[in-house]
């Protein structure tokens, strides 16, 4: 009697694991090969499928979601995004494995569709080339082969006469786990190798801050001496970081170049040594992120060392009609800066040092822009590679088509650092203190109001210049009860901080910062 051939029906338990293994192999091999492609200099794009998908997601982030991410996760928003991508990849891989149990054709459709989405993300990145997709394709072929082999040989078939053919599932799991671990190690090794982090670390250690004719120092009395107030000069390790880079670019100064292009009499290109040979200046400048909510801490003051941007632009010769400089980062980010902010007498710098040491990698090493008076999204380009002299009619910075204002001047603002909202205080004299800022205009006065009372003048710390925030303190005779403390600033031209409450988008938040405290 002719006996029917056994039909393969992979185990419900092991089938999803096969999908997970295939996903890990796909991503691991793709990330390893992406690292090789980058390290060998065969790509100027983003061959890493994980980083490409993350970058494409950031590119399409609406202003409300950007603000939510920054408010919720702060400077950890990139790690959260990468973690989210990892979770989605795991879930999709498990789904693919489950589908492969009985619907292998549908599995192929889903798998190829996901690879196509990742490939589209890779090719959408700045400077993408044909080779950028190759690591993903090789990884996908390997992953699909693993999934097919797992389904064919490693999962338990069931015979038509109900006889079960025993398989060594432990061996299958060990082999699969070993392959997955190997793929993960390959991927991590490729990513680490591609960054060239060691060369960058060596370059930072060897860097010596150029001497300047007039060093900058914190003036006596700039700090009001109240514990809990943000330091007048924020240490590099504590300085806020907001940018679009999923991983910190590692740029070797030996290969770094800065080009001036666009509406200029002559295009100029300088390398690292040429830049360091220029007459450097120091400037104390407070930087500000446009995503900062009222009372937020996405700002910081530092001493920057660099070459004035206006001198480089003068060397190139700006043509009449230009009104904007589009600065470009190595990761593709762009910022559109009003040309007058880079050519007037403010301390707009091509910066190489921060607080007396080489720029930290996360703050732009080897070179970044520092421009007083503008929010960072239109001025503070890190890992700087190009200055394109152009017009607002012709070009837009990264965030402008995503709903943010084109020019981004900083608004007059103030913040209460101490006491914190919800604090329980004792009756007596309480130091209410914080910072106020309106870069490139300066702060003339800060006032505090208790509940609905009159505005009272606070004592200001010594001014360090119009581009720098000022600390302030108000000695409050606290009485028992629940109280609301509110602060406002008045800038150097007499403009009172706006009381109109507005969100960060599209041109910066506004409104008075208040804290509620209880005194007993």
UniProtKB/TrEMBL annotation:
One of its GO terms (biological process) is sulfur compound metabolic process. The keyword Membrane applies. GO terms for molecular function: heme binding; molybdopterin cofactor binding; sulfite oxidase activity. Residues 501-520 are annotated as: Disordered. It comes from the Bacteria. Residues 246-398 form the Oxidoreductase molybdopterin-binding domain. Keywords: Membrane, Transmembrane, Transmembrane helix. Residues 511-520 have a biased composition (Polar residues). The chain crosses the membrane at residues 12-37, 80-100, 107-127, 133-151, 172-193. It holds the Pfam family Oxidored_molyb. InterPro entries: Ig_E-set, OxRdtase_Mopterin-bd_dom, OxRdtase_Mopterin-bd_sf. This is Molybdopterin-dependent oxidoreductase. The lineage of its organism: Bacteria, Bacillati, Actinomycetota, Actinomycetes, Micrococcales.
